[in-house]
Design a protein that fits this description.
Length: about 130
């Protein structure tokens, strides 16, 4: 019985050996190329951002979210709510076209942003704002 226990223990140890790395992750080196804002109507604002080096669509969307958060603070508001974001890649440049509402109080909906908290998070991640 003891021999079986030792054998199973050895098999378990072999199963715990680290796997060989398939490929090292590509370093994230974004280049943020700018933000343009357009006031559409009252509290409805459009943000267009461009960047290179995005890992996927979420990087450009995050850039737009950071811009919206800072814009809300600049206008004296504390909150933003995502209406829509379109992200596309063109000639190696990732672009996001996003629309947010900004407001002094927490808006209704599920995609709300506390602008002050988000701007601090953007700074910690190195994502520029307006």
């Amino acid at each position: 019985m003891r021999g079986i226990t030792l054998m199973l223990g050895t098999v378990a140890l072999v199963g715990c050996a680290p796997a060989e790395p398939v490929e090292e992750a590509r370093a994230f080196s974004p280049v943020y190329q700018g933000i343009s804002t357009s006031l559409l109507d009252g509290d409805l604002v459009q943000f267009n951002v461009a960047m290179t080096g995005a890992r996927d669509e979420s990087d450009a969307a995050a850039y737009a979210e950071c811009a919206a958060s800072q814009y809300a603070l600049i206008r004296g508001y504390g909150f933003a709510r995502l209406v829509r974001t379109n992200v596309y890649k063109e000639g190696g440049v990732s672009r996001a076209d996003a629309v947010y509402t900004i407001s002094p109080t927490l808006p209704r909906g599920t995609k709300t942003i506390d602008a002050e908290v988000k701007v601090a998070d953007c700074a910690a991640q190195g994502i520029p704002t307006v």
